[in-house]
Amino acid sequence: MVRSAGMLKLLCITLLATYLPLVFAENAKILRATVESTLVDASTVASIEKLAGKKVSAPNKNLPLKLLASVETGKNQTFTDVLVDTGSGILWVGGQKRYKPGRFSKRLGDFAISYAVGFASGPAYTDRVKIGDAIVKSQIIGAANHTEGNNIVLSVDGILGLAPSGANSGQIIGHESTPNFVESLVKEGSIDKPTFGIHISPLNPKTGKAISTGEITFGGVDEDRFTGKIVWLPTNTLDSLRWAFNVTSFSFGTLKLMDPAALTARTDCGVSGIGVPFDFLYEILAAVPGSTITGSDDWFGLAFPPNQTASTLPPLRLGLGEKNKIFELPASLYLIPKALYAPLGLTKNLTYSWIGPGGSGSFMLGQQWLQGLYSAYDMERRRIGFALPKN
Ligand SMILES: *[C@@H]1O[C@H](CO)[C@@H](O)[C@H](O)[C@H]1NC(C)=O
Ligand SMILES: *[C@@H]1O[C@H](CO)[C@@H](O)[C@H](O)[C@H]1NC(C)=O
Ligand SMILES: *[C@@H]1O[C@H](CO)[C@@H](O)[C@H](O)[C@H]1NC(C)=O
Ligand SMILES: *[C@@H]1O[C@H](CO)[C@@H](O)[C@H](O)[C@H]1NC(C)=O
Ligand SMILES: *[C@@H]1O[C@H](CO)[C@@H](O)[C@H](O)[C@H]1NC(C)=O
């Protein structure tokens, strides 16, 4: 912004005061897409290996919660179960049914991407892609003809990667890095800023189903989805491939696990858990007698004794930013709804939580943590923001 003085400044202020609402309304081009948190039923899962007649090890009967968006592309195809993932950087489809090139498709070599838990590859195209209200005329997408790995990759129709700019280098083979969906929207003038906001619906503690519909906004944030101001944090340059930032404080009820200091964290809505550093996991374990770390094929983490409930357990408190703004995650949000015990293969008489290991010295804000936070991502200024969700 150019600094001006005197009359010019006055004029500007007058003009701003008069036109600000209008300018804002015109500038804030925000496009919306709904996202749903659902438990994917593996009995309906037909991985492309299976379609190709190959034998694959049967996935578990039910799969962890996923945050899914619907993607329209190819030959008038709709891929309904595309995982929204802030932890990876390209868009691919075709995991459950084959992508068919349509009238806007142009072949662009091949793609290959490895995840911590799997792999997808196949031809790449540029094509028209529609997600909710957002349309990109020419988006680079992968059309998977091969996937492998665990449930996360095998049970979805594709992955919408929303990692920071530059995180997808080499994944479209022969290309350094390619614009992700948000960057393409900016390039084509559909939105002004490469910013997006994510609202994830909390789960009903009784039924385990999402209470409402989640939403991604492209081009800005949705002011109706949070209260107060967004706390913006710079992202860590040493971990530029992920939305990584510093946490200021962390506690479990009165147990202060971290004095104001800096430990790293990242958001990853492509996974369901609430990841805390190993040491803290053990400290929480020690603080609640009868707790244990246990797991099933679909889940691994902290479980409390059955005499502990959402009303006896304290909240997790995460402090962010220079002012150590506290974000509270009540036990009702970090405990796994009982209705999900059977689908997740949790069979012991315990009070299971979503809390699990986040890595050494690192927090991982997965889907269940993000349902207690509104999160915002600014790809241009490389910063990430959080606010208290309005429920
Ligand atoms: C796709 O849908 C449009 C509009 O409904 C239609 O005009 C077009 O023929 C369809 N294309 C194919 C390949 O089915
Ligand atoms: C999958 O796509 C790759 C890359 O385009 C190609 O080389 C391979 O032959 C394809 N495999 C099948 C089974 O279609
Ligand atoms: C995060 O904390 C580390 C360690 O104190 C510090 O070196 C780094 O600059 C911080 N990063 C940001 C983005 O503030
Ligand atoms: C809850 O159960 C655990 C394990 O059985 C026991 O160690 C603990 O003392 C009990 N806590 C309360 C508050 O009763
Ligand atoms: C679970 O354990 C608690 C406390 O030991 C006990 O009261 C309850 O009956 C048990 N429930 C089941 C289903 O075994």
From TrEMBL:
Statement: the UniProt record of this protein carries the keyword Signal: yes
Key word Protease present: yes
Signal peptide: 1-25
GO molecular function: aspartic-type endopeptidase activity
The organism's place on the tree of life at top rank: Eukaryota
SUPFAM superfamilies documented for this protein: Acid proteases
Entries under InterPro entries matching the protein: Aspartic_peptidase_A1 (IPR001461), Pepsin-like_dom (IPR034164), PEPTIDASE_A1 (IPR033121), Peptidase_aspartic_dom_sf (IPR021109)
Entries under PROSITE patterns matching the protein: PEPTIDASE_A1
Alphabetical keyword list: Hydrolase, Protease, Signal
Pfam family, one: Asp
GO biological process, one term: proteolysis
Segments forming domain Peptidase A1: 67-387
PANTHER family (alphabetical): BETA-SITE APP-CLEAVING ENZYME, ISOFORM A-RELATED
Recorded family membership: Belongs to the peptidase A1 family.
Name of the molecule in the record: Acid protease
